[in-house]
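Re: that backbone. Tokens:
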């Protein structure tokens, strides 16, 4: 069961609701939050309460989306998707929008963008960078792409792209993609994905 302390504060009125979340367990770590904020030169002793309150709203909104995201993720074998709770730390400051190991997401006021980041990181978690057969196919189809990080992110971003299209309306999808294309380090893999959707659907095939 997902207890109130797992989201960093007591919320007795919401305890039964929080137990119903079955994929992501949002968690607040004061140490992690403080470390990243101090590294960014932006620590505020009062930020914990603000983040915890935003995290409760995030959990409620994510709950409405989570089952659809999980179902889409499961369509992409041979990736092993573990349906057990994944602990997700929420922080105020982070050099990236999120990281996957451990799963840490930078909070902001736009749930759609947070959800897209979380989906991206969940794709990372659900697939293996050791899938040499798949990477070999990417190398063969896109010999001009030499960097492993870009090769791997072609796979991650393509699956993310398919999930985003499935769970969001067009306006929200377009907003998310505008942000995704602006992220440092991912544009080269996104360029390949957007220019080769049909080819990638033949390489990375979902199951019904």
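Recovered sequence:
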């Amino acid at each position: 069961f997902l207890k109130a302390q797992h989201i960093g504060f007591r919320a007795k009125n919401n305890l039964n609701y929080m137990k119903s979340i079955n994929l992501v367990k949002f968690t607040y770590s004061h140490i992690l939050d403080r470390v990243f904020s101090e590294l960014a030169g932006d620590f505020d002793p009062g930020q914990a309460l603000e983040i915890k309150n935003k995290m409760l709203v995030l959990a409620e909104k994510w709950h409405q989306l989570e089952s659809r995201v999980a179902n889409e993720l499961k369509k992409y074998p041979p990736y092993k998707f573990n349906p057990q709770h994944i602990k997700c730390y929420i922080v105020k400051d982070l050099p990236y929008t999120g990281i996957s190991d451990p799963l840490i997401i930078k909070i902001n006021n736009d749930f759609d963008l947070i959800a897209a980041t979380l989906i991206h990181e969940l794709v990372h978690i659900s697939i293996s960078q050791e899938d040499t057969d798949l990477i070999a196919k990417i190398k063969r189809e896109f010999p001009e792409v030499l960097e492993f990080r870009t090769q791997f992110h072609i796979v991650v971003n393509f699956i993310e792209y398919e999930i985003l299209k499935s769970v969001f309306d067009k306006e929200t999808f377009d907003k998310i993609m505008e942000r995704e294309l602006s992220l440092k380090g991912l544009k080269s893999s996104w360029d390949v994905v957007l220019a080769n959707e049909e080819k990638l659907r033949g390489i990375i095939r979902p199951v019904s």
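The mean pLDDT is 85. Strands lie at 24-27, 86-91, 98-100, 103-106.
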